[in-house]
Design a protein that fits this description.
single chain, 125 residues, 5 helices, mainly alpha
């Protein structure tokens, strides 16, 4: 009975309304803070994963590039020892994998030192 009287009073209803309003405001603030924290954590995790993947891919590409450069120098020095230094210099100036492979093929296909030299010089142009 006393409870019913209190619940019906304007003061009680005003206090309840203010308490709900305050709770909603605090809940929103907490929710935003938690959302930001979760978003930052997820963003960092995604960034790290993307960075690792990009780093791995870049490392693999550089590994292939170095392998082809070594193959160019090795093939040239085996077939045309006088051109080994030039092949190393040319190889270091090329970053495109296809171009490196094509140059290796040209050195393999060269019938003589002059053709091999021409292939190296043309690649530099």
């Amino acid at each position: 009975m006393l409870k019913d009287i209190l619940q019906e009073s304007w003061a009680y209803r005003e206090m309840v309304r203010e308490a709900r309003k305050k709770a909603r405001k605090e809940g929103r603030a907490e929710g935003r803070a938690e959302g930001r924290a979760e978003g930052r954590a997820e963003g960092r995790a995604e960034g790290r994963a993307e960075g690792r993947a990009e780093g791995r891919a870049e490392g693999q590409l550089e590994g292939k590039r170095e392998t082809l450069r070594e193959m160019l120098v090795h093939t040239t020095s085996k077939r045309f020892p006088a051109l080994a230094t030039q092949a190393e210099q040319v190889g270091q100036s090329i970053s495109d994998l296809t171009q490196l492979q094509q140059l290796i093929d040209a050195i393999i296909d060269a019938q003589n030192e002059e053709e091999a030299h021409r292939a190296l010089v043309q690649t530099m142009s």
